[in-house]
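Progress against Task 2.4 (sequence-to-structure conversion) is shown through the following example record, which the project officer requested during the mid-term review.
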Amino acid sequence: MKIEASNIGKRFNRDWIFKNVSLSVESCSSLAITGSNGSGKSTLLQVLSSLTVPTTGTVLFFNDTQKVDDSDLYKSISFVSPYQEIIEEMTLSELLEFHRSFKNIRIENSAEFAAYCGINKGQNKEIRYFSSGMKQRAKLGLALLSDTPLLFLDEPTSNLDKQGSDWYLSEIKKLIGTKTIVVASNIPEEYAFAEQVMRISDYQ
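Structure tokens generated for the chain above:
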């Protein structure tokens, strides 16, 4: 799925976070948004994924030349961020089944999902008892395995140790060329695969 952003900007009160951003991300290609902490890269990622409405400009999505209807867009998007909340009263098994009710996911059962995420024997534990790293692995696992053409990642290795970061890097490499991927990060290793790199500071 292709992303076309035209002249987008985002303002909070009187302050512009970014402005005059125009870009195109071809289907099954990748873009990295880089910048320091607090620079606005997460906000731009939210705008590009339609989680936040831009103050100016438009973001459109296309399957080939066919524009994707806004009401169907959520089915096509997977999104991960450190601030993204999950229902902590659920077990990992319940979270997987809840997610499956919205999107197809390429895994058979919760035991396989727990193993994929490296959350050993965690499928029947309530998520509120998970460490921050385990929660991030669960969120990443759902996004990486979901059968969606668009994948948005905000600082994907946040809260992960080296083993977790290596797992993310290994799994994301398998998806290159199969999805349209946009990642916001200031850690080069997280976006080393990106075909395009943009600096948010160029639009401030």
